[in-house]
Amino acid sequence: MAHVLSTPNDGIPRVLATPDAFREAAEALAAGQGPLAIDTERASGFRYDDRAFLVQVRRRGVGTFLIDPEGNRPEFTAALAPVLNRQDWILHAAASDLPSLAWLGLYPGTLFDTELAGRLAGFDHVNLAAMTELLFDVRLAKGHGAEDWSQRPLPEDWLSYAALDVELLLELGDTMAEILDNQGKLDWASQEFEYIRTTHSEITGPADATWRSVRGISSLHRPEQLAIARELWMSREAIAVEEDRAVSRILPNKVLVEIARTVPRTNRELTQVKGFRRSASRFWMEIIQRALDSDPRTWPKRERPTRGLPSRQAWASEYPESFERYSTARELLDDLSADLAIPTENILKPSVLRTVVWSATAGREIRSPLEVPDALRAHQARSWQVELTSPILTETLF
C-alpha cells in the first residue's frame, strides 16, 4: 500500500513575499546543485489573467522555496531571474506554467517535462500523483489546485499542497529520464522538450485579447448580433481589468454569445437567456441597447474564414478517395502508436496529419514523396516525428 505524503518531509516552507526575502532565496538557490524543480499556482478562475500568485522552486542541497511575487513583481524578477534563467528546469505539464513564468521574466535553459515524459513512456495516467505513486509508492495529498491562489493569507494546507508539487519532482525527472533512455525514447523526448521551451522563449506578457477570439463568435452571422457581441465584450473587458476579475465570473463566453444570438429587446427576453444572472439584467440591457442604437454602418460584418480543409463530413462525401487515404494513414499511425506505446497525437499532431494528407491528395500541393518530410517540418513536426511518419505517409499517399 502506497505511503501517503501529506506534508513535505522538511516541513512547510514559509512564504517569501518581500524584496529582501527574494534576494535571500536567490542566494540560497544559487548555492544549490543540479536542476531546478519549478511549479506555479495561479488563479485564472478568479482573476483577470493567468499570472502566478505563488512560485515553488526546489533544488538539491537547499530545499523548497515558496515565493509570492504579487505586489513586488519587478523585484522578484530582478532577484530570481539571474539565478533561475538559463538553468536546467524540471516541470510537470510545462506548457501550463511556462507562460506565467515568462511574464515574470523567467526562462529555462533546458527543460524536462515529467508529464510529457510519462506520455512518451506509455504511462496510462500521467498526472503527478499517479506517477509518483506508480514509481515511488508515494501518494501525494492533493486537492487544492482549483483554489483562489490570489487570496491572502494562504491556508497552511494549501501551502503544503504547493510544496508537495515539487517535493519529488527532481527524483521523478531522473527516473523518467532513465525509463525513456531504456526505451530508446530519450532523444525523442528531448526534441519535444526543446520545442516546448522555444515556443515559450519569446513570451513577455499575456496575448492581446479580441472580441472575435471568443469561442462561438463565428456562429453569429447578422451584423446586429456581432454589434451586440462586440459591445458586451468591451464592457466586460473593462470591468474585468478594473476589478481584476475573471471574465467568466462577469459574463461567461457561452452566455455572451447566446445573448448576441437572441438579440433581446427587453429585460424579460434577456433574463430568459440560459445561464444569464437576472440580477444584472438592467446593466447588460443598457449595453445591448447601446449597440442596437449605434449607427448600423459601424456594425461589424461576419468574417469569412479563409478556405482550408473541409469538415470531416464534407471531406468524406465530396472527396472520398482523399478521405480514404487519410483514414488509412490514421489507421497506420494508430498501429505505430500501439507498437511504440506513445499516443498517436504525440507521434503526429492530428491537424498536421490532416493538412499533409489533404495537400498531397485533393490540394495537390505535395507532388512527390520527396516533399513529404519538408511538408511535415513546415508544420513544426520534430525530426523524430518526421523520421517515423514520413514512410507511412509516403506509402499511403503515393
From TrEMBL:
It holds the Pfam family HRDC. GO terms for molecular function: 3'-5' exonuclease activity; nucleic acid binding; nucleotide binding. It comes from the Bacteria. SUPFAM superfamilies: HRDC-like, Ribonuclease H-like. Residues 222-301 form the HRDC domain. InterPro entries: 3'-5'_exonuclease_dom, Exo_C, HRDC-like_sf, HRDC_dom, HRDC_dom_sf, RNase_D-like, RNaseH-like_sf, RNaseH_sf. GO terms for biological process: nucleobase-containing compound metabolic process. CDD domains: RNaseD_exo. PROSITE patterns: HRDC. Gene3D superfamilies: HRDC domain, Ribonuclease H-like superfamily/Ribonuclease H. This is Ribonuclease D. It comes from Corynebacterium hylobatis.
